[in-house]
Design a protein that fits this description.
Elements (H helix, E strand, L loop, with lengths): L11 E10 L12 E9 L5 E5 L15 E4 L6 E9 L9 E9 H5 L5 E7 L5 E13 L3 E10 L13 E9 L2 E7 L14 E4 H5 L7 E7 L8 E8 L1 H5 L5 E7 L2 E15 L3 H6 L3 E9 L23 H13 L7 E7 L1 E5 L2 E2 L7 E2 L8 E3 H12 L3 E3 L6 H14 L4 E9 L6 H11 L4 E7 L6 H6 L5 E2 L2 E2 L5 E5 L7 H8 L3 H12 L6
Parallel strand pairs: 17-18, 17-24, 24-25, 25-28
Antiparallel strand pairs: 1-4, 1-8, 2-3, 2-5, 5-6, 7-8, 9-12, 9-16, 10-11, 10-13, 13-14, 15-16, 18-21, 18-22, 19-20, 19-23, 26-27
Helix pairs in contact: 5-6, 5-10, 7-8
């Protein structure tokens, strides 16, 4: 493979920070517990949720710690809908929509300091508060700081009956605003705490400007996270702590009163290798393809089937296989690809069974499941289609487990496995699938889910939830990328951008997890 050809670009990301002011209270005997949800629509695509912030108890002017990260697509209109909800924690009760506002990425990026204050409107069109939106636009950064902090003689805000439960919050300066970028864990009943080491990129901490000040605040946790007590702050910069070797900082609390000291116990500059660095070092990609043959795709004898036999330019699955494989084969080291089916009863010449299978080779030979190149994949798909009895349900567990085993086998050979699944999205074993994906986070595997047709892809979108809890297990890294095929089928470059949006980061994050670096 030409290591310099078709390398995914270092993409611009937009990080969106939100806070609200003067929200109208929805609760009778207390204040609302608001959280913010972002709905994002790229021109020509369906609306998708970018997730929710945390909710903040009893607060009508919340500053949320969680930010949203989206791709910046300069040439396309990107609509943003921000919704503020009141969290209802009673069993069986629903969250209440407090208000929402619609804008575009261009409106915010074009504003002074990339900051907008927007009126939140309720369902009757009345103003119910203000939403403040800041955007920070930076390219990816592979320079990180590893920092370890301790507190010394911190202020006790708990009186005679306890000690403070301190944590640190880090902010970067964007325009005139301080935006939250990191929070440590809380350490209970300790005025001399030692927080766990963490890594943060230069870009995230100070926009990559070594002399730019960042702010650190110390807080004491009160009442399950509400009414936290402020203990003081200090400002410093990467230049201060690396070049000038500053390690001790006084917490400014009030005039002539200190909240204690924060000491930098350890600092280390880390340069994380890039996707290209690993490719140049000989990392190879092994592509596996899974195809959905369930009855939900329609009878192939009819022209409206996603697997229709007779179509002028190929059916939707054939088109998707051609487009996706053409892109990913650029990275496959030997151009030999194993293609499997699921959700059908195979009646292949050398593999004929009488029940639905969830992972069978289209070659009919488990020992020789591979074909060569794009032409081989398309011919195999066409030749086997008449010999498959569409059935169901669609279960991803078997093919995921198979890909996981292959990835584990190849991991010591500098081979990274990519499983491409093309499906109409009607997954039956969602519980098992989420459990397997959680385990896949620790192996050399990425999973690209391509939604074919015009179905409801909520289950596939759920599997693509970055850093969310799946079956109560927090993913050590994100391994899933979901792409609906139809919105991008008209443009190979845009489809390429979407298919490869997360693969470089998933590979480098896996290497970082194991402490692996290129040998060259």
């Amino acid at each position: 493979m030409d290591q310099n050809k078709n390398i995914p670009e270092e993409r611009y990301k937009l990080e969106i920070f939100v806070k609200a002011k003067n929200l109208k209270d929805m609760d009778t005997f207390s204040k609302s517990d608001p959280f913010c949800r972002l709905l994002h629509t790229v021109q020509g695509e369906k609306e998708k949720s970018e997730g929710d912030t945390e909710f903040i108890k009893n607060n009508l002017s919340p500053t949320w710690d969680k930010s949203f990260i989206i791709d910046y697509i300069f040439e396309l209109n990107q609509k943003l809908v921000f919704q503020v909800w009141d969290k209802n924690q009673s069993a069986g009760s629903q969250d209440q929509l407090m208000g929402q506002v619609e804008t575009t990425v261009a409106d915010i990026v074009g504003a002074k300091d990339m900051k907008c204050e927007l009126d939140l409107k309720n369902q009757k069109g009345k103003t119910v508060g203000t939403l403040v939106v800041n955007i920070d636009k930076q390219p990816e950064d592979n320079q990180f700081l590893q920092l370890s902090w301790i507190g010394k003689d911190l202020m006790n805000t708990d009186g005679f009956f306890g000690k403070s439960d301190p944590f640190l919050k880090f902010y970067k300066k964007v325009g005139e605003d301080w935006l939250p970028v990191h929070k440590t864990e809380m350490i209970k009943d300790n005025l001399n705490p030692e927080w766990k080491p963490f890594q943060i990129s230069f870009r995230r901490l100070c926009g990559g400007q070594l002399g730019q000040k960042f702010k650190v605040e110390c807080w004491d946790v009160h009442e399950k996270g509400t009414n936290n007590q402020y203990m003081g702050y200090f400002e410093t910069s990467i230049h201060d702590i690396i070049n000038d070797n500053k390690t001790e900082f006084n917490l400014e609390f009030q005039a002539n009163k200190s909240g204690g000291k924060i000491i930098l116990k350890e600092k280390k500059v880390i340069k994380r290798p890039t996707f290209m660095d690993f490719l140049k070092d000989g990392e190879q990609i092994n592509l596996i393809i899974g195809v959905d043959y369930t009855a939900q795709n329609g009878n192939p004898n009819f022209p409206d089937s996603l697997h229709a036999f007779k179509t002028q330019n190929g059916n939707q699955y054939e088109t998707a296989i051609k487009a996706c494989a053409q892109i990913l084969l650029n990275y496959d080291y030997d151009k030999k690809v194993a293609m499997y089916g699921f959700g059908a009863v195979p009646h292949l010449p050398n593999y004929n069974v009488n029940e639905t299978e969830q992972c069978f080779p289209l070659t009919g030979d488990f020992k020789k499941p591979e074909v060569f190149g794009l032409e081989g994949l398309v011919n195999l798909y066409k030749q086997t289609l008449p010999n498959l009895q569409f059935s169901g349900p669609a279960c991803l567990g078997e093919i995921l487990n198979y890909a996981k085993q292959i990835a584990e086998f190849n991991s010591k050979k500098k081979i990274y496995t990519v499983l491409l699944i093309l499906t109409c999205g009607q997954i039956h074993d969602l519980h098992q699938t989420t459990e397997i994906i959680a385990k896949c986070a620790n192996v050399s595997l990425s999973i690209i889910l391509v939604g074919v047709g015009d179905f409801d892809f909520k289950k596939l979108e759920f599997l693509d939830q970055d850093q969310k809890q799946l079956q109560k297990e927090v993913l050590t890294r994100n391994v899933v990328q979901f792409v609906p095929f139809a919105p991008y089928s008209h443009s190979l470059p845009i489809l390429q951008r979407e298919l490869l949006a997360e693969l470089p980061h998933q590979l480098t994050n896996y290497k970082s997890l194991l402490g692996l670096v290129p040998s060259k």
